Each structure stands twice: as structure tokens, then as C-alpha cells.
Amino acid sequence: MELEKRLSKAKTSLVLEHPFIGNIALNMPFYVSEDVPTAATNGKWVKFNPEFCESLTDDELKFLVAHECMHPMLEHNFRRGERESTRWNDAGDYVINKLLDDEKIGRMPSVGLLNDDIWTAGGGTTNGIYKVLPPTNDDDGSGQGTPRLDECVDAEGSPAEQEQQAAEWKIRVAQAAQAAKMMGKMSAGLALFVGEVLQAKVDWREVLHRFVERCKDDTRSYTRPNRRFLSQGMYLPSVTGEAMGDIVIAVDCSGSIGQAEIDQFAGEVKGIKEDSNPKNIHVVYFDSEVSHYEKFSRDDELHIEPHGGGGTAFSPVFNYLNEHNIEPVACVFLTDLYCSDFGNEPPFPVLWVTIDKDSTDAPFGEVVVMND
Q: For 163-174, how does the pLDDT look when each residue is reduced to its tens digit (9 = 90+)?
């Protein structure tokens, strides 16, 4: 077929001109398929629609080939989670297209997404751009009729299998980068990109939401129908209805946490309240002792404001919960972790969100560094 020849030519061109991406493309199975409207990848294969690709120039097809290789490099196929599929796809496209355009790799087709203002507003990351894009209310990936360059399809397999695929992709990226460096064809921009991929910072927001998600009981309830499907006339049970128990949010008010960190943290906790619908959220403010306490039910509007300002001790928080018979399914601390008084490990999981990248040690629980 003519398209197969053109795809082979695009691969060859990438190997010669941009060997980093070319080496990745060589090891990706390509298929010509009318099952996709433009192009699509799930991290294991790439499919190209013949009618769409026929409308592209050779440079645009080269761009599209490179674009499809970038989605699994950036783990877009493995870490969408509960995010809207089209919005996540678009966020990833803004990141990829900016890089390919800066590197002058082919030419972006007219349906591609490229906007410096959106890229900057989102901090140049897929997670950040996703947050600044408006909701699409489109969970089936249809794009509501809007023409798109491609579809970023979720990887197959269990979460553990997807993590394994993501790890294998990191190896591919490292090998391709090494080959390109040996050829003397690794630009500074791509070298920076590779470094970020191989040493990617953990997004604390993702860790926080996954932590809470793991604490859900998967009992499904029709008392709160799944809102995502109501617009389609489908009355389906929600896993977040009556299934989420109480959670505790503990805020370090010793003076080390600034208002900017408080605001970031509060925004994510409000997102948890909306998404996971816990029965109650107990907010405990502490320094060397518990200085303030508030309880928010499902119908209450959540707000987090600092109270106190002395030293730091974590054990009073656990003592307070025990004394007041508060039995949460999880507890999340916002702190700098500069304290040796942790107390005894509680019978529930604990996540420490620390604002200091140099302070990440805790005798129990999971630690994640708050980053921008």
C-alpha cells in the first residue's frame, strides 16, 4: 500500500535526521486501519487512518509519526487515571507539539494543538495543562465531533502491567538517547526532555489522589449515580457514593508552611471531597499540640485556614484522634517533616506531603514532596 511506503519513508527520515525519535519509531509496530479517525496509539502499536494520512504532506506525516511515539514516552497511555480522556489527550498534545515544533521535526498538521500561552500556563507539563484546560465532559474519547490529530488510548492490562510497560518505555528512551548521542545528533532540547523523562518528578497531586483512591471500599451504590453517565441517559452506580469513610487532613501550623502551600493543598483536598465523596473530612491544625479542629460532612463547604504557630509534634494529632474516637480510613499531613515526635504508627494509612525536598524521612507511612 502507498501509505505503508510513506510511513516507512517517514521512519527512515527520522532515523537519519532525528535518530532519537527515529530509533523509537523503528521498534513501534505500525498499522494502516480505518478503525481510527486519524491516528492512535496505546503504547504498543500505532494505527494510521489511510484517508486522513493521504491528506498530509510528507513533512506532516513525519510529524505525526514522531507525535505518536511521544505519547508512550511521556507515559500518557499509562497514567490517565480518572481524568477525562479527550482533555488528557489534548493536554498531552500541547506538550508534544511544542517540543516537535521547537525541534523542527516535520511540520504540524492543521488539526494539531499548539499554543505557547496554554503551554506556559500549564508549566509545560501534561498534568499542568490538563488543569488549565476547560472540562470536555467527554469520557469516551469521541472529542464531541472536534477534529483531532490523534487518539491517545489507555494501555492494556492491569495497573501493575501498565506500570511495567511504562518502565520498559523508560529503557527504550534511554537506549534511543544513547544511540543518538553516539551519532552526535542529540539536541540540547531533546537531551533536556530525555532527562526529564528518565528522572521525572513525582506529581504530589497524583500521589495524593491515588492514596485516597486506594482507601475506598469498592462497594457500589445507586444512592449517588455516576454523574459521568447521566448525560447519556445511563443510570449507573457510583463507587464513591456511600463507600468512602472518614479521612483526616492534618495541617502543620508551626510557621514553616506558607499561604501558597496552604492554598495548593486546600485546592487538592477540595478536589478529593468532590471526587471521592468521603463521609466526613476532619481537619486537624497542629504545632506542638492540636490547636484547632473542624469537621466537614459531605454537604459542607470545605475551607482550610492555618491556626496556631508554635513548635512541631505529630504524636498529638494521633492522640487527639484516639481520644475523640475518630477512626479514619486515611490521614494526610501537610508539613515540612522537621520533627522527631511521630508517635506510634496508627492503624490507618498515612501520607506525608512535605514542602521540603530535603526532608523526606518518616518512620511510617508514605512521603511525597510538594512540587509546583
A: 888 888 988 898
